[in-house]
Specification:
Helix content is 6%, strand content 37%. It has 734 residues and is mostly beta strands. It folds into 4 domains: 138 residues, no CATH class; 106 residues, no CATH class; 185 residues, Immunoglobulin-like; 189 residues, Immunoglobulin-like (Sandwich). Strand 10 and strand 11 form a beta hairpin. It is elongated. Pfam families: DM13, DOMON. Keywords: Repeat.
């Protein structure tokens, strides 16, 4: 194989007077663009630094004594030193490669891990080095053009042991080069645009070839067309020189033999040697300025997807696995959940602790067709989404869903859903960028989906205490036991299905009713009574959890409303209204949904003459009073058998100043038999209103199963029945 002769060199002048070789057509070994050499201030820092590609540095002959002792007094410190003067041994185990974009090395920078493939959550400290060659991959999202210096830095005492300043405006950095697609000549050969990643590495996306030729190989050589005389075989993506098999839209990476670079060839072909036939080729241009082949190149193809990191978010319930791939983070949530539940994971609303408000999270679940879904959520308040605030999908409040490439399966009570998102978000209002160079506070939860298919309150579990991780970690496995499918279905074991629901509560014969906010009573309360999921709070009327209310047509009722009136905080704003909707939440509905609902009380329309719109608004708002567990106690819903016992564990708190609201309602004579009291802003907080005629009486009888048997009677019917019986008796005696 005739190797090309060394070509002319391109040189760039630098301020220190060095001529830096930037062309690769040279007799000398090419390491990239020379940036300069370290200046040593302490501990023998040395080495020459090169820009290999936009993300990678190469240090030739790096030296460091590995001891990191402090400096006696200030005399030994260079002018670039920043930090305290120490008179003792420091930094015995706290020196790192450090880069930044300030005017001089300072604590405002980024650590560059070396070696990169370390295990565990802590970045390893530098050991002793004596003239070794080192490849440094900058943190994801940071380019050489973004930094102004590199330092060997003692993070603990902010001591600069040695540095090199980088003048970005005066350097040219080698970069990958995109070529054409393979020409399509025979045997179905085709591909996407081929990329030269470095001097010896080609990336071929979406490669197709039928694999039917007797001895076809990857082939490179000189000349204007592929030919057997100047060509040489190139190993396939597995490093093998076996004949090529079939490829079906496969992404692969191949490397030239060590003695050859892209500067020595004119073409890359899929070539059949026996028949001397070229099935398709890509031509390689001259004068390329691509990165050197130093072993830094790695491409994640369609055949690789190892999520080597794992962290438990909720013990034995929810785990997160992740990996950083280029500028994307790949996440897999694995959880023991039921089919109607969700798993969530994301960035905390606070950089110091686990905080729900302000969090940017992914909510993963399976839809009604069994398809995996991942929705992007912004948590602006600890409340159900009202269409503007609360726990809301971004797409519902004007944002976008940044998650894509979703896949998953549900086996034996364990859900596994994998998805991607970019480190940099396109939705700056509702999403956070991911900084892979630091540890990020994260949160996770498991809960039920509501009737809209949105996340409800996370009764099933959530992250307790601060939880953090580094998105750039490699090989960090903090999960002692993987969550694997279980025929016994652990999710069902955790669900207290054997707990009997509480008996329904009733209000009948009362015309003044006080409406307050309280807990839903766990698995015995709201869901067991209504069959619907709730956010975690519900209406309590006259001290009863969502009682069924009986009202008479034509009669007037007063509702004293204490559901909160702070419109700026959706968790403390619950207007009361009466409707024919089983779900409520009129304020968050779209126009088409509103047309299907009829409101009977608690909502007025603004003056059309004043604002031209006639916009609805709630009228029954007042101070906030809530039923809560007594001080220092947990919710006892799962531990007591009756509602009466449960209520004894609670006490009523009224928050702040202000007066109750009031709703006066005269029941229309044509009102339907069944209506509902609900919250104007949130769904699934109320329950039934039975509309009856005058004289109705509600009677509850205890049956043999201690259940409540309802019977309806009225005085007129009772009198009629008695009269008929008397007539029958008199007739019989007569």
């Amino acid at each position: 194989f005739p190797l090309a002769e060394a070509g002319s060199q391109r040189r760039k002048a630098y301020p220190d007077g060095d001529d830096v070789v930037t062309s690769q057509r040279s007799d000398e070994k090419f390491y990239g663009t020379k940036l300069g050499s370290f200046t040593n201030y302490a501990h023998g820092i040395g080495g020459t630094v090169y820009a290999v590609d936009p993300d990678t540095l190469f240090i030739k002959g790096f030296t460091y004594d590995g001891t990191g002792p402090g400096v006696e007094g200030a005399g030994g410190l260079a002018p670039h030193y920043s930090g305290p003067v120490v008179n003792e041994i420091c930094c015995m185990s706290d020196a790192f490669f450090w880069v930044g974009n300030t005017t001089q090395p300072s604590p405002r920078g980024w650590v560059v891990p070396y070696p990169e493939n370390y295990k565990g959550s802590e970045v390893p400290i530098l050991n002793r080095y004596q003239g070794e060659n080192i490849i440094l991959n900058l943190p994801k999202g940071i380019k050489i053009k973004d930094i102004t210096w590199i330092s060997v830095w003692c993070r603990r005492f902010t001591v600069n042991f040695g540095d090199l300043y980088i003048e970005n405006s005066k350097i040219e950095i080698p970069q990958s080069v995109k070529l054409s697609e393979f020409s399509r000549k025979a045997h179905g050969v085709a591909s996407g645009n081929v990329t030269i990643l470095d001097e010896r590495t080609f990336y071929i996306p979406e490669l197709r070839y039928d694999g039917r030729a007797p001895d076809a190989f990857f082939f490179v050589g000189k000349g204007t067309t592929p030919n057997v005389e100047t060509g040489i075989k190139v190993p396939n993506e597995k490093g093998s020189l076996e004949r090529l098999g079939a490829y079906n839209d496969k992404d692969i990476e191949i490397q030239l033999p060590k003695e050859i670079t892209v500067h020595d060839i004119d073409w890359l072909s899929i070539y059949c040697i026996s028949y001397r036939e070229n099935f398709g080729e890509v031509f390689v241009p001259d004068n390329l300025f691509v990165p050197p082949a130093l072993g830094q190149t790695f491409i994640t193809t369609t055949t690789t997807s190892a999520l080597s990191n794992c962290l438990p978010l909720i013990d034995n319930v929810l785990q997160v696995r992740w990996a950083l791939e280029s500028n994307d983070i790949v996440v897999q949530l694995v959880g023991r959940i039921e089919p109607n539940q969700y798993m969530s994971f994301g960035l905390s609303g606070s950089p110091e602790r686990s905080e729900m408000i302000g969090a940017d999270v992914a909510v993963a679940y399976f839809d009604e067709r069994g398809e995996p879904r991942v929705d992007d959520y912004f948590l602006s308040a600890k409340s159900q989404c009202d269409g503007t605030r609360g726990v809301c999908p971004d797409t519902r409040i004007g944002g976008s869903n940044d998650f894509h490439s979703v896949s998953g399966e549900y086996v034996g009570g364990v859900a596994s859903i994998t998805f991607r998102r970019s480190l940099r978000t396109s939705d700056v209002k509702m999403d956070q960028d991911i900084d892979a160079t630091i540890r990020s506070q994260v949160i996770g939860a498991v809960g039920n989906l509501n009737n809209r298919g949105e996340a409800n309150y996370h009764f099933s579990g959530w992250t307790a205490g601060p939880v953090s991780l580094s998105f750039s970690s490699v090989g960090f496995d903090g999960c002692p036991v993987p969550l694997s499918p279980d025929a016994s279905n652990e999710a069902e074991k955790r669900t207290p299905k054997n707990l009997k629901p509480w008996e329904p509560q009733y209000i009948e014969g009362e015309d003044i009713i006080t409406a307050q906010i309280g807990p839903t009573g766990g698995s015995r309360g709201y869901k067991a009574i209504t069959g619907e999921e709730s956010w975690g709070i519900a209406w309590w009327l006259n001290g009863k959890l969502i009682p069924e209310v009986y009202v008479e047509r034509g009669k007037t009722y007063r509702f004293i409303v204490e559901g909160g009136k702070d419109e700026t905080n959706p968790a403390e704003y619950h207007p009361f209204y009466i409707t024919d909707s089983r779900y409520g939440g009129y304020g968050q509905l779209e126009a088409a949904e509103r047309e299907r609902e009829t409101i009977y009380a608690g909502v007025s329309i603004t003056n059309v003459k004043t604002d031209g719109t006639g916009y609805p608004y709630p009228t029954a708002v007042g101070r906030l009073c809530t039923w809560e567990p007594k001080m220092g106690e947990r919710d006892q819903a799962e531990n007591v058998d009756t509602f009466e016992e449960y209520k004894k564990s609670l006490e009523l708190f009224c928050h702040g100043d202000g007066d109750p609201g009031e709703l006066t309602w005269k029941v229309p004579m044509d009102a339907p038999d069944l209506l509902y009291y609900q919250c104007y802003n949130h769904q699934n907080m109320g329950w039934k209103i039975h509309v009856v005629s005058e004289g109705f009486r509600l009677r509850r009888e205890k049956g043999p199963d201690n259940g409540a048997a309802l019977s309806r009677s009225c005085n007129t019917i009772s009198i009629a029945v008695i009269s008929l019986l008397l007539c029958a008796v008199i007739g019989r005696w007569g």
